[in-house]
Amino acid sequence: MKLIIGLTLIALLSGTGLSQPYVPSPSYFGLIRAGDWKYLNWNGEAVLTDYYGSGPDLIIPSSMNGIPVKWIGGGSYSLTSQVLHADNWAIKNVFVPDGVVEIQQGAFSYFYGLTNVSLSSSVTNITGAFYECRNLKNINLTTNLTFIGPSTFGGCSSLTNITLPDKLKKISWGAFQQSGLKNISIPDSVTNIESVAFKDCTNLVSINLPQNLPVIPYGLLQNCSNLVSVTMPTNTHTISDYAFYFCAKLNEILFPDTTATIGEFAFAYTPALKAVSLPDGINEIKRFSFAGSGITNVQLGNNILNIESSAFFYCQSLNTINIPTTITNFNRDAFHGCISLTNIFLTGDVPLFSISVFPSNATIFYQTNKSGWSTFNFEQRRQEALRPSFSSHVLFTTNSSTKLKLKLRTVRG
Known about the structure:
mainly beta, ten-stranded mixed sheet, 31 strands
């Protein structure tokens, strides 16, 4: 059965650093037919636009009528290209010759029968080229590859292993999302990984992140439900929202000393995570950062100022947390549902409390020589806050260590 590949090329693919020939529509140009191919002569370089051959082997020509092939373009209708109107199970093997520098968006997307790809060493950029190639098992990423573009291997569920070259610089959003990868090691040459690059890789067990990655992006490993081991970068300053959300088997995370920000839901619903030690560079715990995790022990850094609402929401195994003297604010529901957290020791001045900060069975200990405690009034604070149907109230007692003991009880507002 004949196979047709249609292409639309774009002027400049964001992030590649490589200018591309601009073809708004093939109808605007006199595309040249040569055998099973159509191509565009762009300033003496051939851009392949259509293929009319049959499987199982697709051998990309190195030249068309003496013009060197530099580009393999993408689908005429984005990812839903004309390949959908042909037998997209026919092609099993793709061979890319020396001289081709870029494989563009959608070039081989939805080739459901494709199992093997052989690339030449001249290829430097791949952008969305193999999206939803569900049976792709083998591809050699050559030593000169510097850029893996958006959704390049997204949905490649049979791709269990891949070796990333040492010259690689950037992995774009969704590049391996929903792929079948089991283990991945990212070379230290990579300094930019975009959002959800490995999201929903449910077979992924371990990942080594590059050492010079400043930002772990949004949703990087979200829903990687079998992920156990992560080697963190040494120079990361930001762990973005949802980065490790619902990594159900992740049992340890070592934060680099450079970490300054942990985003919302970053480690939420990680039931196998047991202990967390945060570096001194972090001054705020964001909303739901560790909500629903399995942590039993938290060591906060010495510069924490604010714990946002629901930061440790329903961490039911949490029984130990050190709260430094720098803390100034507990937001609503910060430790709500932490039923194992029965003793809380505050060693600094009185912080700001919102409502329902601690579980109702908790006891707070504080030092009488610290500012604000002698005149602190939970009832007044409760009245100033938005009144819920139930809120925390405090009774004052004295213990043998000359500290005041605050017993939290749940009462009607």
